């Protein structure tokens, strides 16, 4: 074996390199440490092969009279410098990736380029015995020419270094760069790749990103901001609108209570005024649903206070009771005459904040329709009351008692002051004695709320992991 290595060092070295490349592909990128150990081990064998035949990468070949040995030693010397550069790049890159992950990809590429450049210069100086100073001077002049030719590319390159160093965004962040919004899926030496809401890939040059106004929607990572804009006729007093919109925020259960919500006037015009509602939610994917809910709630609360977007004020001369019957879904099966008669039987009831409107297990003797305000609905899980939802204008309470004289499965407690209209059970007897659309609608509402109650009760709270000195001592008993 040793005789073969001495007789054929070039073949042995090439064989080692081929084995290394094959093992590098077979092991796979997920096992970085094993890859690094294999490459270092084969590099050690490569060094042993060179030393066994008397070849040193730090001096020119020793056989100038033998062209074959001289060429072989030159190839092995150059190969050693390149192999050493690759091994050093893998070792440093493995440590860098383990600490910073994929975000350090650009720095890893730049570091590898510098190391290989040093390896090429070392091979030229020690193996080929070239005048390195003159080579560096020539390469410096060429570098200036090339730099002028690729000025924009270099700008992207150095901007990428700045972005990777300052980290205004990372992979997976939702950002807006120069009015382009999307999720960061790749940051390379030239550009940042975003996947937009439409599923398209937007490529933003790093030089543009370094100069642009960047908005990172993923920081802080535990909350996501939401905002909606409502346009109201300027003839409506702002205080009246703000009160209604504040009730909208109170009625949006998805908004995180530990973060402040805000209603503000965004702009004022001759014909209309823009109001903005702001809050925070936990999940990015819930933004659209929460915004749609806030729009609907805002419309209902504004309508409950008498705000109208209809320029013809005489087109709907209904009072509030009649308007509620028109808007509430369960009464849509009734004819106009039936709704007119029912509106005359509705009794207004005012309530204050933090007042129990319908207690848990109480049998309601009438149907209650919320006109204004926000009401919290809580269910009992066997131990305590848990908030299940929040309801507002146009929502109904007491359907269990009206349908079958069943006790309420939830507690309805007011969050804000407001008013509801009460319809006595006797008034609805004619419609509820026989199967019909109204009875079916009330049954569907009851089933929906029962499903929500069961879903909340069946949810098991996540068990917290015990930690600390006491837990450590208990484990060792």
Total number of distinct structural domains: 4
Sheet with the most strands: spatial strand order: 4-3-2-1-5
Q: Given the structure, what is the number of helices?
A: 16
Radius of gyration: 37 Å
Average pLDDT, rounded to a whole number, is: 80
Distance between the termini: 60 Å
Q: In percent, how helical is the residue content?
A: 40-55%
Fraction in beta strands: 15-25%
Strand pairing plus helix content: what structural class?
alpha+beta
Regions with pLDDT < 50 over 5+ consecutive residues?
462-477
Tell how many strands the DSSP assignment holds: 16
What general form does the structure show?
elongated
Largest sheet: 5 strands, antiparallel
Note down, in words, how this protein is organized:
It contains 16 helices and 16 strands. The strands form 4 sheets. The chain has a 5-stranded antiparallel sheet with strand order 4-3-2-1-5. It has a 4-stranded antiparallel sheet with strand order 9-16-11-14. Strands 10-15-12-13 form a 4-stranded antiparallel sheet, with helices on one face. Helices cover 49% and strands 20% of the residues. Helix 3 (32-52) runs antiparallel to helix 4 (67-100) and helix 11 packs across helix 12. It has 477 residues and is of the alpha+beta class.
Short structural summary:
The protein contains 16 helices and 16 strands. The chain has 477 residues and is an alpha+beta fold.
Helix and strand layout, with pairings?
Elements lengths: L1 H6 L1 H19 L4 H21 L14 H34 L4 H23 L4 H18 L1 H16 L7 E4 L2 E8 L3 E5 L5 E5 H6 L2 E3 L7 E10 L4 H14 L10 E7 L3 E10 L5 H18 L15 H8 L8 H9 L2 E5 L4 E3 L7 E7 L2 E6 L4 E7 L4 E2 L1 H6 L5 E5 L3 E7 H8 L4 H22 L10 H7 L2
Antiparallel strand pairs: 1-2, 1-5, 2-3, 3-4, 6-8, 7-8, 9-16, 10-15, 11-14, 11-16, 12-13, 12-15
């Amino acid at each position: 074996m040793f005789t073969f290595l001495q007789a054929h060092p070039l073949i042995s070295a090439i064989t080692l390199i081929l084995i290394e490349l094959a093992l590098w592909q077979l092991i796979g990128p997920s096992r970085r440490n094993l890859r690094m150990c294999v490459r270092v081990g084969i590099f050690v064998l490569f060094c042993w092969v060179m030393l066994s035949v008397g070849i040193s990468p730090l001096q020119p070949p020793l056989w100038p009279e033998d062209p074959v040995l001289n060429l072989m030693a030159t190839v092995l010397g150059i190969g050693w410098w390149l192999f050493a550069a690759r091994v050093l790049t893998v070792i440093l890159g493995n440590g860098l990736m383990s600490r910073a992950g994929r975000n350090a990809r650009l720095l890893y590429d730049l570091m590898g380029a510098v190391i290989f450049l040093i390896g090429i210069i070392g091979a030229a100086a020690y193996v080929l015995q070239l005048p390195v100073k003159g080579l560096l001077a020539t390469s410096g002049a060429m570098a200036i020419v090339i730099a002028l030719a690729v000025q924009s590319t270099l700008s992207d390159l150095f901007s990428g270094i700045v972005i990777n160093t300052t980290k205004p965004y990372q992979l997976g962040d939702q950002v807006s760069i120069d009015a382009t919004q999307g999720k960061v899926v790749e940051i390379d030496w030239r550009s940042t790749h975003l996947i937009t809401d439409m599923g398209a890939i937007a490529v933003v040059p790093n030089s543009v990103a370094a100069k642009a106004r960047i908005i990172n929607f993923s920081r802080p990572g535990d909350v996501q901001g939401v905002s909606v804009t409502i346009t109201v006729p300027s003839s409506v007093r702002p205080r009246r609108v703000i009160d209604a919109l504040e009730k909208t925020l109170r009625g949006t259960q998805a908004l995180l209570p530990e973060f402040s919500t805000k209603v503000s006037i965004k702009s004022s015009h001759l014909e209309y005024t823009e109001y903005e509602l702001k809050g925070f939610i936990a999940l990015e994917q819930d933004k659209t649903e929460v915004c749609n809910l806030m729009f609907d709630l805002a419309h209902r609360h504004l309508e409950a206070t008498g705000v109208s977007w209809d320029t013809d004020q005489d087109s709907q001369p209904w009072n509030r009771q009649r308007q509620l019957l028109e808007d509430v879904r369960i009464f849509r099966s009734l004819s106009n005459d039936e709704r007119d008669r029912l509106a005359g039987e509705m009794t207004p009831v005012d309530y204050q904040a933090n007042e129990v409107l319908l207690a848990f297990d109480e049998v309601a003797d009438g149907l209650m329709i919320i006109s204004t305000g926000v009401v919290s609905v809580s269910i009992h899980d066997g131990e305590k009351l848990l908030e299940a939802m929040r309801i507002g204008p146009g929502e109904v309470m007491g359907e269990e008692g009206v349908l079958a004289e069943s006790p309420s499965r939830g507690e309805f407690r007011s969050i804000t002051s407001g008013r509801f209209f009460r319809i006595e059970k006797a008034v609805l007897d004619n419609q509820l004695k026989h199967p019909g659309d109204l009875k079916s609608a009330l049954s569907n509402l009851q089933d929906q709320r029962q499903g929500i109650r069961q879903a909340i009760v069946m949810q098991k709270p996540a068990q917290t992991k015990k930690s600390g000195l006491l837990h450590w001592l208990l484990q060792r008993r």
